[in-house]
Amino acid sequence: MDNKTDRIALVTGCSSGFGLLTSVELALKGFTVVSGMRRPEDKDSLMRAAQMAGVESSIQVVEMDVQNEEQVHHVVKQIKERYGRLDVLVNNAGAAFGGMIEEVPLSVWKEQFEVNFIGMVCVTQAVLPLMREGSGGRIIQMSSISGEVGFPGFGPYASSKFALEGFSESLAMEVKQFGINVVLVEPGAYGTPIWGKSFSQLRTASQSPYKGLLDRILQYSERSATGGGDPLDVALLIAKIATVRSPAFRYRIPRGTALTVIAKRILPDRWFQFMILYVLNKKS
Question: Do residues 10 and 34 lie in contact, with contact meaning Cβ atoms separated by under 8 Å?
Answer without folding.
Answer: yes
